[in-house]
Structures are given as structure tokens and as C-alpha cells.
Write a sequence for this structure.
């Protein structure tokens, strides 16, 4: 048996190329089919906004495709692994490799390294593309597919409770004391009865209160409206009540989410669910590293024995069981039932041990 971890350079490049080509080919097919189905279900909502047309459909596709790629990349890697190993087995190439002295781990080594490359690519893609497209698409959907906000970091449609009163901001721009609110509405309630509505074009946080400009007041009892100009109100309502009111982990990169968690902790807010999502931004892409190990059962055993299909099904079952366990653990972490690190990393480590055990017990 050879002592090096990798097979020859030729075999390494051959198997890694097969794996990558098949994985990305499966991904392209899935993206094409799922994007078409998703667009069919969403097109009526897009066209419902006056003036929207074909250009808005393509805008939606451009924002939605990165999300689909991020979600189904790990499925594609699993299917690419099964197709690659089943093909190698069917052509007796696995038998030739083992006859030359290669172990099962050496045969899988090129796929694992290629999986590591896919994981790094996935993390970078999620950070640079998916987070931004998700934030922009979420803001666009909140605007009922109206004009897309120029800044995808702008938060929209925010509600804050101040005693009995409700404060709504159409948009919140900036962070900390520099936060600026646009489209502010204050619903003044007394004893759960609405007494007046104050609306302002803009609000800025100055000396512990909000200075509203372009303000009007509507009196519910009399049905009259009055121009107030510039007023100061909502003292004690800090800017983080708006900027941190709706933290979407999917719409933030790893470093942006970590900063948001720090701001929430400083404001005394719970962060356990967001911490689970933060760590999952690392463990999620690494699932591509795990797929060759879980699908390895499809590459070994005699193809002519008639059990190749059964082995492929077992490999697929292991992979999909991992996806179910991963989503379940993340859901438990979001609910606070699991600690953040356990919710993010336990499924990965568990199925790493399961895949390694199956490989060792059956092939080594």
C-alpha cells in the first residue's frame, strides 16, 4: 500500500475534475429548473405593481438566483459525488485503483480536497453576493416590488413600541447617533384608543430624542389636520430600537452579523439565535467537504453484483439525513433550545464520524 495520502498527480486531477464538472453541471440544472418554477409563482406579484415589466422579472431572477445557488450547492455536491463514484465503479476504475495499492481514503482524497475548494468558494460567494442580494430582495419585497432602495443596507418598514404609542419608520439609514429615519408615523394611543397620528418626512436623533421635520398631526376625534413643522418627541427611544429591530442573518455577511450581535449585546438584547446563524455561516459551506465521505459508499463494492444502485441510494440517504439534521439543529438553535455552537457544528461532526465509520467498517 502506498504511504502518501494522495494517489498519483494524474489520478488526482482526473477524479477531482470529474467531481467538480458533475457537481456544477447538476447545480446548473437545479438552478435552471428551480428558478423557472420560482419565477412562475412570483411573477404575478411582480406585475401587480404598476409599471413593472420584463425588466423587473430579470431583476428578480438576478436577485433570486444567488439564493438558490447557495441553498442547493450542497445538494449538487452530494449528487456530483454519487455520480462520480458510481461512474468510476461502473467502469471498474475503482477496482484498478485498489489493485494498485490505493486505499479507500486515498481514492477519496482528491474529492475531499475539491470539496474544500467548493466550501471556500461557497463561503466567499455567500459573503460577497448572497448576503447583498438577500438584503436587496427582502427590501424590494417589503416595498411590494416597487422601486428598489438604492442602498441594500437600508432597513425598511420598522415598528417600535414606546409605552402605549407605536412608531413606524418607512426606512432607517445609518447606525448609532447618526441614524436617520424617513417616513415616520407616530400613533398616539391613550387607553388602547387611537387619539392622533403624527407623520413626518424625516427624523434625526438629537440629545436623546427625535427631532422630526415636515410634521403634520391628524386628530382622530375631530378629523382635522394641522401642520406642526419641526417638533421633538419620542425621548428615550434609542436609535438601536430601529436599526436592530429586524436583524436578518441571511441578509448580512459573517462580519456584519458579528457586528450586529455585538451591538445587540451592548443594548442588552438576546443574541443566541443569531449566534447560531453566525456559526452556521462557517459550518454550512463546509458541508461540501463532508459530501464525498457520506457518498463514498456508492463508489465501492462490485458493480456487477447488482448492488451499485442500492449503494447509491444509501449514500443519498446519508447525505439527505445530514441536511435534515442540520436544519433541525439550526431551528433548535434559533429557538434557544440548543447552544449556538452545538446547533451549528454538532450535525457536521456527527456525520463526519458516521461517514468515517461506514467507510472504515466496509472498505478499510
Amino acid at each position: 500500500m502506498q504511504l502518501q495520502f494522495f494517489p498519483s498527480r494524474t489520478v488526482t486531477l482526473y477524479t477531482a475534475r470529474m467531481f467538480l464538472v458533475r457537481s456544477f453541471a447538476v447545480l446548473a440544472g437545479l438552478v435552471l429548473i428551480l428558478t423557472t418554477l420560482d419565477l412562475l409563482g412570483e411573477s404575478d406579484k411582480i406585475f401587480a405593481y404598476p409599471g413593472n415589466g420584463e425588466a423587473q422579472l430579470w431583476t428578480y431572477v438576478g436577485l433570486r438566483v444567488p439564493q438558490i445557488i447557495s441553498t442547493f450547492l450542497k445538494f449538487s455536491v452530494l449528487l456530483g459525488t454519487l455520480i462520480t463514484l458510481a461512474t468510476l465503479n461502473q467502469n471498474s476504475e475503482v477496482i484498478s485503483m485498489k489493485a494498485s495499492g490505493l486505499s479507500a481514503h486515498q481514492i477519496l482524497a482528491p474529492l475531499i480536497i475539491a470539496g474544500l475548494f467548493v466550501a471556500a468558494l461557497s463561503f466567499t460567494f455567500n459573503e460577497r453576493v448572497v448576503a447583498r442580494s438577500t438584503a436587496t430582495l427582502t427590501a424590494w419585497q417589503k416595498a411590494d416590488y416597487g422601486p428598489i432602495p438604492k442602498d441594500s443596507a437600508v432597513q425598511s418598514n420598522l415598528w417600535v413600541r414606546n409605552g402605549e404609542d407605536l412608531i413606524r419608520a418607512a426606512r432607517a439609514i445609518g447606525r448609532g447617533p447618526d441614524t436617520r429615519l424617513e417616513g415616520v408615523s407616530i400613533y398616539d394611543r391613550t387607553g388602547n384608543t387611537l387619539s392622533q397620528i403624527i407623520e413626518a418626512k424625516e427624523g434625526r436623533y438629537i440629545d436623546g430624542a427625535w427631532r422630526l421635520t415636515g410634521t403634520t398631526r391628524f386628530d382622530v376625534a375631530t378629523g382635522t389636520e394641522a401642520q406642526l413643522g419641526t417638533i421633538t418627541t419620542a425621548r428615550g427611544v434609542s436609535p438601536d430600537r430601529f436599526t436592530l429591530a429586524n436583524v436578518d442573518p441571511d441578509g448580512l455577511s459573517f462580519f456584519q452579523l458579528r457586528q450586529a450581535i455585538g451591538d445587540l449585546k451592548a443594548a442588552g438584547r438576546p443574541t443566541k439565535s443569531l449566534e447560531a446563524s453566525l456559526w452556521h455561516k462557517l459550518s454550512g459551506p463546509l458541508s461540501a467537504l463532508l459530501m464525498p465521505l457520506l457518498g463514498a459508499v456508492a463508489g465501492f463494492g462490485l458493480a456487477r453484483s447488482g448492488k451499485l444502485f442500492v449503494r447509491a441510494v444509501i449514500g443519498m440517504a446519508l447525505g439527505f439525513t445530514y441536511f435534515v439534521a442540520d436544519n433541525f439543529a439550526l431551528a433548535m438553535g434559533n429557538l434557544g433550545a440548543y447552544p449556538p455552537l452545538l446547533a451549528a457544528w454538532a450535525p457536521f461532526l456527527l456525520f463526519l464520524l458516521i461517514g468515517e465509520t461506514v467507510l472504515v467498517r466496509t472498505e478499510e
Q: What stands out?
A: The chain has two domains: 9-145+273-363, 155-243. The first strand starts at residue 155 and ends at 162. The chain has ten helices and six strands.
